[in-house]
Amino acid sequence: MRLWRKASGLLKDHKSIWLASLSRRTSFRNPEMEAAVIKATSHDEIAIDIKNVDRVYRWLRLSPSHLKSLIWSISLRMEKTRSWVVAIKGLMLMHGVYSSKIPAIQRIGRLPFDLSNFTDGHSDPYKIWGINAFIRAYFTYLDQKSSLLFMNLQERRNLQNLEHVNNNNNDNDNNENGNNYNNVVVDGRYSMTQDLILIQKLQYLLDILLEIRPLCDEAVVPLVLEAMDCVMIEVFDVYSRICNGIARILLRIYSAGKVEASMALRIVQKATIQSEELSLYFELCRSIGVKNAAQFPRIEQIPHEDIKELEEIINGVSEKDSQLTKTLVVHEKILDHQNLEERRKLRTVITDKWEKFDEDLIQNNVPSKPPELPDLITFL
């Protein structure tokens, strides 16, 4: 049965590559890239075609303008597949796109394909349910991350436009009342609120991340473990950003009002719960053989006394000259140089080094009126 699936998958891949070679090159469709994506997301459930994975990312490093073609190619592949193997490889490939740190990625919005109800069409559902659930959880995280990146971009643009308008108004009106609206933008408490909201969003993402796991023994297969390696890197990145944000907030907490202090308390309480969940998550990952799980340090807990002190700030009991240095030290321990060094040791999905290769320098004729992009892809 397994040999038959392998042969069938191989034939499907060859057919898809042949069909891709017949397509016309446009501003957003690249037959060579489509072929590379098909090979990088082949039906082979044992091996990953690293050569073509790297080839796909080289296109992206060569020029961010290739992002449209890459997203089109991945989406086309994901929309048609009923194979859990292809789905996991496609999600890993898309995960690597978000690791490239190209600014244009923030403009994608929701993912232009949907695996939220994915079910493998070629296996016994009773045996494959754990892998199906893994794929749906992985997709949900990437979709939510992409959506939040887009919303944050919109918020930053709105803030910049507001600052520009206020600066112009300030030039035309130098009396005291003329500065009030502009002060809302640059006021320290406003910045703290924005930071608090960002931390809450990161904690929301971390909750979704921790849902990505094999739910049964049948789901602990080599390809799932490869995907979990990528997930572990993402977990550490998101959690370290949360800890960094909390440390910054605690430095300014006594200049905040009760609203900000209340938000900070909820965040710290949430961080306490998540640190416990992270410890259990890392133990699970180590027990099933996820390589990157062995690289992560022990998770520090936030002392109960520091949470109590935040409560006292909200209630007006604590004096302004007291300090929350203990909490700050705890979070600095989490993000100290040793832990950052551990992170550097982890296997990365995509590098920032820009490269060129000969076939990408060949000039190609592009039709004057390319087809429109799918509605779900937004490039502003």
UniProtKB/TrEMBL annotation:
Span of the signal peptide: none
Lineage top rank: taxon: Eukaryota
InterPro entries: ANTH_dom, ANTH_dom_sf, ANTH_N_plant, AP180-like, ENTH, ENTH_VHS
Subcellular location: Cytoplasmic vesicle, Clathrin-coated vesicle; Golgi apparatus; Membrane, Clathrin-coated pit
Principal cellular location given in the protein's record: cytoplasm
Pfam family, one: ANTH
UniProt KW Membrane keyword: yes
Record keywords: Coated pit, Cytoplasmic vesicle, Endocytosis, Golgi apparatus, Membrane
Protein name: ENTH domain-containing protein
